[in-house]
From TrEMBL, chain A:
Signal peptide location: none
One Pfam family it belongs to: SoxD
Sequence segments annotated as region (Disordered): 89-110
Protein's name according to its UniProt entry: Sarcosine oxidase subunit delta
Organism this protein belongs to: Chelativorans salis
From TrEMBL, chain B:
Name assigned to this protein: Sarcosine oxidase subunit gamma
Signal peptide: none
Superkingdom assignment: Bacteria
InterPro entries given in the database record: SoxG, SoxG_het, TrmE/GcvT-like
Length: 110, 180
């Protein structure tokens, strides 16, 4: 079974406890009432859906209940790392070329 | 003569005893779902008479009362003495949310040398003593139901589950217990 490191529980847990929650780092426009339909469509519906490394939100639904972010390779389904919600998108190059799985302490790779 | 109502436990009358494994419903207890920010913990700990644990997967006990860490701002409190925990929390003026879930949950005690094997039939977590030590507690899944596991001894766990799931959880435990 796939093991996912929860940055709040500070350990690896089985995937059955988790739920996927869409692409991470999508900022809600601050002037949402004023933007055009095309801009709203881009914000609301259009996702990158890359082949390779993607940044996603996950929720430890049947554990601590927290949302967090993860970098995952969509080809190998390998979790490269997980980090707390609100932390900036990590630079995976600096984090060791994707070999890092659990560098998820507060403040690490900013 | 007026008849008095008697509360019937969801698992009343159910029990299983096999070689190296025993399943029993736990005694009734009062329970509380507590959510609070870091700044409120000192006041709430004082009001409840135990120090709310801040480390993941840990518990704190004081007499018949226990607090189980469920998340960074969430605890499950269990009091086998039946104290009204919402009243105790109300004494603390610090910001918090306390919901009485005494009758939403029920608990099953699993004990015996085959405890880890029986739980392993439905729970995907690592349950060895090294990964899940005595006193550790965690919300997880058991089969199709969400449960809270609490290791109360080397070979004994308490499983807290919703009372509507308890028939399913007990039946799955019993099925696994017959096969170990």
């Amino acid at each position: 079974m796939l093991l996912i490191h929860c940055p709040y529980c500070e350990e690896e847990r089985p995937e059955l406890e988790f739920r996927h929650a869409g692409e991470a780092h999508i900022a809600r426009p601050e002037n949402i009432a004023e933007i055009s339909d095309e801009e709203f469509q881009r914000y609301f519906f259009i996702r990158a859906n890359p082949k390779g490394v993607t940044f996603e939100r996950w929720r430890h639904m049947h554990g601590c209940g927290r949302f967090f972010n993860a970098a995952r390779d969509t080809v190998s389904d390998r979790f490269l790392m997980t980090y707390m919600a609100g932390e900036p998108k990590p630079d995976l190059g600096k984090a060791g070329g994707g070999a890092v799985r659990s560098a998820s302490r507060k403040g690490t790779p900013a | 003569m007026a008849e008095t109502a008697r509360r019937i436990s969801a698992l009343e009358g159910r029990a299983y005893q096999g070689p190296g494994i025993a399943l029993n419903p736990a005694a009734p207890a009062s329970r509380l779902s507590l959510r609070a920010p870091e700044a409120s913990l000192a006041a709430l700990s004082k009001a409840l008479g135990l120090i709310l644990p801040r480390k993941p997967k840990t518990t704190a006990e004081s007499g018949k009362r226990a607090a189980l860490w469920l998340g960074p701002d969430e605890w499950l409190l269990i009091d086998e003495g039946g104290a009204d925990l919402t009243v105790l929390c109300a004494k603390a003026s610090a910001l918090h949310s306390a919901v009485d879930i005494s009758h939403r949950n029920t608990a099953i005690l699993v004990a015996g040398e085959h405890t880890e094997d029986v739980l392993g039939a439905g729970c995907p977590q690592a349950l060895s003593l090294a990964r899940f030590p005595i006193g550790a507690a965690s919300r997880t899944v058991f089969g199709k139901a969400e449960v809270v596991l609490w290791r109360i001894a080397e070979d004994a766990f308490r499983i807290e589950c919703w009372r509507s799931f308890s028939y399913y959880v007990f039946s799955l435990l019993e099925k696994a217990a017959r096969e170990v």
